[in-house]
Write a structure and sequence with these properties.
The chain is an alpha+beta fold. Helices cover 25% and strands 23% of the residues. The radius of gyration is 27 Å and the shape is elongated. It starts with 26 loop residues before the first strand and ends with a strand. This is type I protein arginine methyltransferase.
């Protein structure tokens, strides 16, 4: 994809890459203590010295064998070896490997499981969903890596929604989004030159190409949608196929772990943000990727995000957004029961560009995410907020929520909550950032709007008073891609304190 919307193009000159380090990974023979560094040689040793032909056994399991079965085979053979079973007497068939207990590695941290690439099914064929195996593999991941809770159809529909061209065009044409990533990468080429990068949810591969153009030594571009095939074509079309490896699969899958290998990456880059920041739950996968693949001194792009909010008071805008006037007169008929099903209602979180005139208080930050350190469980939270209402405000209609995104170079100690994204970078300070708020340049994320109940919208508040309360984000049970957001609030009223609560869902 050509960055046609940018004012300038950049290129990176010839780069002399350092000679690759020799592969020193070793693993134990299946039946004795001898160490090996090449699987074919070890298999030949097993055949000659122990009388067991691993390759013939794999072939005997049939043409439809999948990666999980091969993993089970290795673990089963190691299990029989520990039992002192004579290798010549071991017989293996599909029934033997039916038990899921052989998904559990017999040998802790068995390096052989990561070196079986030449004996696995074609990686371009349909990837197996390794959910059972992921449970076991994640026990070795740092920081108690957790699994997502998803209905199978829900997860499939999520990835299906990203296979078409239209959604990717919308994201690429969002110049605030795309050019923020590009500008950070090009401004800080020294952070990418000669480094290994993992792009989580690569889509068309635009971020991977930015990194490759900036001199990255290797980029793993991972996406579980059909768009991965297009990304592979785009990478080749632009001559970066030697640097950018597109992997179709979930970043947590053993298939992906095998292709990336045991070496950690220097950088993880991802455009994971959803409506209200956390809708769609993609950050969960990014954090799991961090725990699985990122070097201790590696860094995340973006590095930080903040969640912000502001109260809304504008009855005309609310009525227009709910469609009250439209549905009131349909060729002389009153269709007002349709209002409750509109984009702004008493159940769902709406997505709008809120006009500045509808804002009735100062914007405030209520949560910060440090992507290098935050844990998955911290994405469910309750956080306090406090803002001051504008003079003359006499009622509240809702709240607008959005996020600001920051690209801080590693080693920078600047507090993201104190940064004004509108002026950042103009004073020469390192890093970049952008806002998706109602007073910033519009983006495809807009703002998440929570409408108050009709009862709370009738309550009289005192202009100029302090409005405070709490915001709760919580994943919906059994669907980590959906979120419930609840806001409790209180402030001074004309006749004493007033308070309220609103809970809305995005699915």
């Amino acid at each position: 994809m050509s960055d046609s919307g940018s004012a300038t193009e950049s290129s990176v000159g010839s780069i002399i890459e350092d000679a690759s380090e020799p592969d020193t990974t070793t693993f134990k023979c299946l039946f004795c203590k001898e160490q090996w560094s090449r699987v074919p040689e070890m298999f030949a040793h097993c055949r000659a010295e122990h009388g067991f032909d691993v390759e013939s056994t794999i072939k005997s399991l049939g043409p439809d064998i999948d990666e999980l079965t091969i993993i089970k085979l290795i673990n089963y053979l190691r299990y029989e070896s520990q039992r002192k079973t004579d290798p010549k007497s071991i017989n293996v068939d599909s029934e033997t490997l039916a038990s899921d207990k052989y998904l559990q590695p017999t040998l802790p941290d068995d390096a052989l499981l990561f070196e079986l690439g030449d004996f696995m099914p074609d990686p371009d064929s349909k990837v197996v969903d390794y959910e059972d195996y992921e449970v076991i593999m994640h026990r070795n991941a740092p920081h108690d890596t957790e699994r997502m809770h998803l209905d199978g159809d829900r997860d499939m529909s999520y990835f299906e929604s990203y296979k078409g061209a239209a959604i990717h065009r919308e994201m690429i044409e969002d110049h605030v989004r795309t050019e923020s990533y590009r500008n950070f990468i090009e401004k800080h080429r020294d952070l990418f030159a000669g480094r290994t990068v993992l792009d989580v949810g690569c889509g068309t591969g635009i971020l991977s190409l930015f990194c490759a153009r900036a001199g990255a030594r290797k980029v793993f571009a991972v996406d579980n949608s059909d768009i991965a095939q297009r990304a592979k074509q785009i990478v080749a079309q632009n001559g970066y196929q030697e640097k950018v490896e597109v992997i179709r699969g979930k970043v947590e899958d053993f298939h992906t772990q095998r292709l990336i290998g045991q070496e950690k990456v220097d950088v993880i880059i991802s455009e994971w943000m959803g409506y209200g920041l956390l809708f769609e739950g993609m950050l969960d996968s990014v954090l799991r990727a961090r725990d699985l693949y990122l070097k201790e001194d590696g860094f995340m792009v973006p590095s930080h995000c903040t969640l912000r909010m502001v109260p809304i008071s504008d009855k005309d805008w609310v009525a227009q957004s709910k469609g009250e006037k439209f549905w009131k007169d349909i060729y002389g008929f009153d269709f007002s029961p349709m209002v409750s099903g509109g984009p702004l209602n008493d159940r769902d979180i709406g997505v709008f560009d809120v006009p500045e005139g509808a804002l009735c208080g100062t914007a405030c930050t209520f949560y910060q995410l440090d992507l290098k350190h935050i844990q998955v469980q911290e994405l469910d939270f309750t956080a306090p907020f406090s803002t001051k209402l504008h003079p003359g405000v006499d009622s509240l209609d809702g709240f607008a929520l959005w996020f600001d995104t920051f690209f801080l170079p590693p080693g920078q100690t600047q507090d993201a909550t104190t940064i004004n994204t509108a002026n950042w970078g103009k004073d020469g300070k390192p890093g970049l950032g952008f806002s998706t708020g109602p007073t910033a340049t519009p983006t495809h994320w807009h703002q998440a709007v929570l409408l108050l109940s009709e009862e709370d919208r009738k309550k009289e508040v005192k202009g100029g008073s302090t409005l405070k309360g709490s915001v709760t984000y919580k994943k919906k049970r059994r669907d980590d891609r959906a979120i419930d957001v609840e806001i409790t609030w209180e402030c001074e009223g004309v006749q004493g304190p007033v308070s309220g609560k609103t809970k809305r869902t995005m699915t």
